[in-house]
Design goal:
- By secondary structure, the protein is an alpha/beta fold.
- It has 12 helices and 8 strands.
- Strands 3-2-1-4-7-6-8-5 form an 8-stranded mixed sheet, with helices on both faces.
- Helix 6 runs parallel beside helix 12.
- It is globular, with a radius of gyration of 20 Å.
- It starts with 7 loop residues before the first strand and ends with a helix.
- The relative contact order is 0.14.
């Protein structure tokens, strides 16, 4: 694989990550695939530190491109930086991966993503864990909420495989959709119009767009990165914000966490609709389902509090078990 045709291109948005960008890039240099076959694009978003200098300063085995970009007020966020980084990455490879500058990729990260694409995926969502060396300094209450959320997420992945199974995304799978670990083909990225330039949630919005046009999204359990679990983060809506928010008395869980009965009813309805849907020119199942769901309040997710999580976990576990026993 030569520099003109890299195995994949890795897009990294970074804002004032001088302390962590080095270890992120070092983890890419230690991939089990040949690092020389990788292209890495770092977009230093409105940085006031040495992020760009550090990224340029080491003789990495990967092909490195470092862009110092000043976004105007209102656009100086991770969504804009990830959009630009992935646009540039798409000029260099057919497969684009993205992670965050505070992440450390497992040594087989690239290999596991490439394997998922080789099985026909148009986009891949990998797993993200918080750095335990930082997490362990959180309060017991915050860690307990996190443990419950992690347990619910694991059951959510199981529920989707049980109640709305899809051939391209079989069990075992997970339910995370985080910009710290995403891959997409250049063709699919072009079809959905690139990464939405949103202040937060650009990662889920991108993958939602893939599913709206019936792209094959794989939730790959073997693809894993570790993200910083610091309290003071760089990206609005990132892990640092989520951890800090758990300290608030009025905290509601992320919108992936909801009433188990509503979740299962929606998955069953989607599966039934998918089974009877017939293709029509210019339309996709994903678009039709989104339109239908918008008119069904009873199937729409409503966020819950941490205090509700244990009960909803128990209900979801029971519903999954009953479906498997049926």
């Amino acid at each position: 694989m030569n520099a003109r045709n890299p195995l994949c291109a890795i897009a990294i948005p970074a804002r004032n990550e001088a302390d962590l960008i080095g270890r992120c890039l070092a983890s890419l240099a230690m991939q089990t695939v040949y690092p020389e076959s990788l292209a890495v694009i770092v977009v230093a978003n409105n940085c006031t530190d040495d992020t760009a200098t550090i990224a340029r300063g080491v003789q990495w085995p990967m092909k490195m491109t470092v862009i110092e970009q000043h976004f105007a007020d209102g656009l100086a966020h991770a969504g804009s930086a990830r959009r630009l980084a992935m646009q540039i990455a798409a000029q260099q490879s057919q497969i684009i991966l993205t992670t965050d500058a505070d992440c450390v990729a497992d040594s087989d990260w690239v290999a596991s993503m490439i394997a998922a694409f080789s099985r026909g995926a148009d986009a891949v969502a990998g797993r993200v864990s918080g750095d335990w060396h930082e997490l362990r300094h959180q309060s017991a209450a915050v860690l307990e909420i996190g443990a419950h959320e992690w347990e619910f997420l694991g059951l959510l992945g199981e529920a989707e495989a049980v109640f709305d199974p899809r051939d391209h995304d079989p069990a075992p799978r997970h339910a995370q959709r985080c910009g710290a670990n995403i891959g997409i083909t250049r063709m699919m990225l072009e079809q959905v119009g690139g990464v939405p330039a949103l202040p937060t949630g650009e990662d889920r919005a991108l993958l939602d767009a893939v599913e709206r046009i019936d792209g094959r999204l794989r939730h790959e359990p073997h693809s894993h990165v570790t993200a910083s679990a610091r309290i003071t983060g760089r990206a609005e809506g990132g892990m640092a914000d989520a951890l800090a928010a758990r300290l608030s008395a009025d905290y509601l869980c992320d919108d992936q966490f909801e009433r188990a009965e509503t979740l299962v009813a929606r998955l069953r309805a989607r599966h039934a609709a998918r089974n009877v849907w017939t293709h029509r020119d210019g339309e996709t199942f994903g678009q039709d389902w989104a339109s239908y769901l918008a008119g069904q309040p009873r199937l729409q997710s409503q966020r819950i509090s941490p205090a509700q999580l244990p009960d909803e976990i128990a209900v979801l576990r029971q519903l999954i078990g009953s479906a498997r026993d049926a």
